[in-house]
Write a structure and sequence with these properties.
The complex is a heterodimer.
Chain A: E1 4-9, H1 15-21, H2 26-33, E2 35-38, E3 52-56, H3 62-74, E4 77-81, H4 83-86, H5 99-107, E5 134-136, H6 143-154, H7 166-172, H8 197-200, H9 218-226, H10 231-238
Parallel strand pairs in A: 1-2, 1-3, 3-4, 4-5
Chain B: E1 3-4, E2 7-13, H1 14-27, E3 31-38, E4 41-46, H2 65-68, E5 72-79, E6 87-88, E7 95-100, H3 102-115, H4 122-129, E8 131-136, E9 161-165, E10 169-174, H5 177-186, E11 190-191, H6 194-209, H7 222-227, H8 234-239, H9 247-250, E12 258-264, E13 270-277, H10 298-317, H11 327-331, H12 339-347, E14 376-385, E15 390-397, E16 410-415, E17 419-424, E18 434-440, H13 444-451, E19 457-464, E20 477-483, H14 487-498, H15 500-503, E21 509-515, H16 524-530, E22 536-542, E23 554-555, E24 575-580, H17 583-595, E25 603-606, E26 622-623, E27 626-627, E28 634-636, H18 637-640
Parallel strand pairs in B: 3-7, 7-8, 8-9, 20-21, 20-24, 21-22, 22-23, 24-25
Antiparallel strand pairs in B: 1-2, 2-10, 2-11, 3-4, 5-6, 5-13, 9-10, 12-13, 14-15, 14-19, 15-18, 16-17, 16-19, 25-28, 26-27
The chains are: A alpha/beta, B alpha/beta.
């Protein structure tokens, strides 16, 4: 029997699911190897019977947490899809401030009291709520990596996600190093697997696939000094996707180098 | 006709060189690649017009290695529905590469030594044969290059044509018949005069003086400098600044380690086995199926890279595997990768005379076993579940050719779409085409093996590696110690020595076996058969028993068995001891053997590492300068007891 797959979205732009919808004719190949039983972006049917749950988005509210736990209890394999799910991503920017302040700033005097839709807590990545079996990193995800994870699972093997920095892929693409052009690139501390798509197209890496080692380590300081760059600027670049790296209370999604996640 | 170093030289004007290159491009018979700009840097890339070609560059981001060992290369294509419908990947059309500097030519010649040895890499060879190289003498020196110190700033070989800029024109030194024909067919040249030859040699002489970066020691001294400083704090200190980004190994012309993996199309119908660049600096480089990582510490990986360049490969092949191109120095953001700086730093320190520490002198060449990475088709004949996690497979080659392995050797088991895994052969040598393996379910390949059934096809490469030299064990007592699944390869030796035909060649045999718990103990019935005569003794132990376990052996670690052995009955000098087990076991068991008075030269071990290519190329299984897939997995303890990484 083909594994049954269901997609779920939490706080996100749903762009990672859109990447999958964008597989176009390959979708036909995909449904040959798996049964898609729930995928809001492309179909109206839904079933609660599934083997693999693919979760996009961050967990922001108690009601999200409940829903996620229910999904976890129903599936055999849970995959976190995209930066919002794997590391909290952009949604974690707000964790720099107390949630009450953030809510007040956004909703001002609107009457949201006792409305559970607005009952927010500090943003969590999926693995801060339930165990995650596999991660498909990125903002958005790399379609090839999604295909590789799905085919691996269909073949009964464990998908392998790179455990080394973007520099490896950037060098294979023979790019001019962005540090040499005076840019802040998070490639040296960010997990590879994207094919170094941003640096290859001239944009510095923003770390959407998660930070492998803390940015305040000696080696990074050394580089900043060498290229006349400031730590404050680097830090602010890190907070686009990796606010958690600087929040000791919230550090559980930091994947330290040398350790498997 | 004027000659330079007994090579014919032609003179070609700048304009005619342009025409020559354009003629090559227009012909479309070749892919014509040359040095071009990329931003402020230079790269080798396809030329659409001669005007793109830049011969006065300093250094390219990547070396021309990428043409011969591409970052991502398909080794074979397969069909998942028709197992063993394997197709080797095709090779591209012939290529001409223009503008290769001497140090890169020398790096390619070094790669040839490794990839075109007795177990040649056909994929590399086809590309090498298919490529014409037009070199160019260095005009601008890269700031980080120290090629003159490595004597790689000029070369007399490795090119089909070599261009030297003489101010208003180029000299083209002919290096091969191919180069000569190419120049005749596509170019317009004049013979060189004696004065031109003189100018070439002057130009080349001048190149050396342009290098600002210099080594304090001769390159012949690298090996000694490194050997004397293996435990120096500099490795720890410098590696603290290492981001493990792998840039240094990716851009290196003499880093040629690779990984092999299977990629599958999304409809699960087709797939390909691909080879990608890998590097010893990356942590997962040595990761094995059971999750163990060798050289886990970054300082050890950092050190390994320098030793591979300056000691391991030099001792094996006779050349320093660094050509001084300076690419790693440019690519390393914290600036710790530069070998010139490292060797200069180390050269200030005291050195000892210790040598011969990190490699094995003897040459154990693998016999030519066809195209590397292409497995032979085989069928599972029988499966027998031994424990919860271990399964025995009897496998037969479909061509029915005899397997002819030695005890202790291994095979690469291949399942298309999943991958390859090194597995020890568990049956004794036999003249048949079938053999047995025992698999512990730990990784992707072994997990899939568990789900297969008799009649299913799989791929086998091997037998690989160095097995036990059973002849040298003759007329000796044998003390065989196995821990955990170490009994699996040990069984191939036991089956051989207890076989009726061979038994009389050996004196008393003692087999010690330690397992974690009774449910994990393997081959219990066979143990009964093996020691049916008095001269074969078996002692079994488990780390622990729980209530309800049926166990008549001892309880405790395997080391608790040694005091029981009485060696005074026969002398320990005439005892051969073999140890196979998990990494942690060796040090303790060998101490026990030494207490028993067994000399080190009588001790043999079999080590586990990540054997990937099986033919001493991909670099994954290296213990210091030793390739486990080639010199091992069976080693004389004496040969490796001083290898720092062997029993870590």
């Amino acid at each position: 029997m083909k594994p049954r797959v269901a997609f779920f979205d939490f706080s996100s732009c749903e762009g990672c699911q859109l990447q999958i919808a964008d597989l176009e004719e390959e979708i036909l190949d995909l449904i040959e190897i798996v049964d898609i039983v729930s995928f809001r972006e492309v179909m109206k049917e839904h079933s609660d019977e599934y083997d693999i749950a693919v979760i996009e988005g961050s967990i922001m509210r108690p009601m999200d947490e409940q829903r996620l736990r229910k999904i976890r209890s129903r599936c055999k394999i849970l995959i976190a899809l995209g930066a919002c799910a794997t590391i909290g991503g952009i949604n974690k920017i707000r964790n720099q401030w107390p949630t009450e302040e953030v809510v007040k700033e956004v909703y001002k005097d609107a009457d949201i009291k006792d409305n559970e839709f607005f009952n927010a807590f500090q943003t969590k990545a999926v693995n801060e709520v339930v165990p995650v079996d596999y991660y498909i990193h990125g903002c958005p995800i790399n379609r090839d990596e999604f295909k590789q994870v799905i085919t691996s699972l269909a073949l009964g093997k464990k998908p392998v996600i790179p455990n080394y920095p973007v520099c490896v892929e950037c060098k294979k693409n023979e790019n001019v190093c962005l540090f040499e052009l005076g840019k802040y690139c998070l490639g040296p501390i960010t997990r590879a697997g994207c094919g170094a798509i941003c640096p290859t197209n001239g944009s510095p890496c923003d770390g959407c696939r998660g930070i492998l080692s803390k940015p305040d380590v000696e080696c990074v300081m050394e580089i900043l000094q060498r290229y006349d760059l400031t730590y404050e600027e680097l830090k602010s670049r890190c907070t686009l996707y990796n606010t958690n790296v600087f929040n000791p209370k919230d550090g559980m999604t930091l994947i330290r180098r040398g350790k498997d996640d | 006709m004027a000659q330079s170093n007994s090579k014919i030289v032609k003179i070609i004007t700048k304009k005619d060189l342009n025409t020559f290159v354009n003629n090559l491009i227009k012909d479309k018979k070749y892919s014509v690649d040359g040095v071009k700009t990329k931003g402020l840097k230079f790269v080798f890339g396809p030329l659409e017009n001669a005007s793109e070609l830049l011969l006065d560059y300093d250094v390219t981001i990547l070396p021309p290695k990428k043409y011969f060992l591409p970052p991502h290369e398909t080794l074979m294509n397969f069909n998942l529905n028709k197992p063993f419908n394997v197709k080797e990947s095709d090779v591209e059309k012939p290529r001409i590469i223009i503008g290769v500097h001497p140090y890169d030519l020398i790096a390619l010649e070094q790669t040839d030594e490794i990839y075109l040895d007795s177990q040649k890499d056909d994929f590399y060879k086809k590309r090498r044969d298919n490529t014409i190289i037009i070199g160019v003498d260095i005009q601008k020196v890269s700031e980080k290059s120290f090629a003159a110190s490595m004597k790689t700033h000029v070369t007399d070989s490795g090119f089909d044509l070599m261009l030297t800029y003489l101010g208003d024109r180029y000299a083209a030194t002919i290096g091969s018949e191919k180069g000569k024909m190419l120049l005749q067919k596509y170019g317009k040249t004049k013979p060189a005069l004696e004065s031109d030859i003189k100018k070439i040699s002057e130009t080349r002489k001048n190149i050396a003086s342009k290098f600002k970066k210099k080594l304090n020691v001769d390159k012949e001294q690298w090996s000694n400098v490194l050997v004397a400083n293996y435990d120096h704090p500099i490795w720890e200190k410098k590696s603290q600044k290492c981001m493990e980004c792998g840039s240094c190994v990716m851009v290196c012309p003499t880093c040629f380690c690779y990984d092999v993996k299977d990629e599958v199309s999304i409809n699960l119908k087709n797939g390909s086995r691909v080879r990608t660049w890998d590097g010893c600096l990356l942590r997962d480089f040595t990761l094995i199926g059971s999750g163990e990582v060798f050289r886990d510490d970054i300082s050890k990986r950092f050190r390994h890279r320098f030793y591979r360049k300056g000691n391991y490969l030099p001792e094996r092949y006779g050349f320093v595997a660094c050509v001084g191109c300076g690419r790693c120095g440019i690519a390393c953001l914290p600036d710790i990768a530069d070998p010139c700086d490292m060797i200069n730093d180390l050269s200030h320190f005291e050195r000892s005379d210790e040598t011969d520490k990190f490699f094995i002198k003897q040459k154990t060449e693998v016999a030519d076993k066809g195209i590397i990475h292409i497995p032979r088709s085989a069928t599972i004949k029988r499966m027998e579940q031994l424990t919860e996690h271990e399964m025995l497979f009897e496998i037969e080659f479909d061509d029915k050719k005899a397997f002819n392995h030695k005890p202790g050797q291994f095979v690469e088991v291949s399942i298309f779409g999943v991958g390859e895994a090194p597995i020890s052969v568990s049956s004794g040598p036999a003249s048949s085409s079938s053999f047995e393996i025992v698999v512990r379910r730990v990784g992707n390949v072994t997990d899939r093996l568990f789900k297969m059934k008799p009649g299913d096809k799989l791929g086998i490469r091997g037998p690989l590696g160095n097995g036990f030299d059973v002849k040298s064990f003759e007329k000796k007592h044998l003390l065989l110690s196995a821990g955990g699944i170490g009994i699996v390869p040990m069984r191939s030796l036991i089956q051989y020595v207890v076989d009726d035909e061979n038994r009389k060649k050996y004196k008393d045999i003692t087999i010690l076996y330690g397992a974690k718990q009774p449910s994990e103990a393997l081959f219990m019935e066979e143990f009964g058969d093996w020691c049916k005569t008095d001269d074969v003794k078996c002692e079994l132990t488990v780390d622990q028993c729980v209530e309800g376990d049926c166990w008549t052996g001892c309880t405790g670690l395997i080391t608790s068995l040694y005091p029981k052995i009485k060696l005074d009955g026969y002398d320990s000098k005439n005892t051969i001891a073999v140890v196979i087990g998990p990494p942690i076991m060796y040090r303790y068991v060998i101490k026990c053997l030494e207490t028993l008075g067994i000399p080190d030269e009588n001790i043999f071990v079999s080590l586990e590492r990540r054997m990937k290519c099986g033919v001493g190329k991909c670099g994954h299984c290296q213990i210091n300068g030793v390739y486990v897939c080639k010199e091992g997995p069976v080693f004389k303890y004496n040969d490796i007891k001083n290898l720092p990484e062997a029993f870590e």
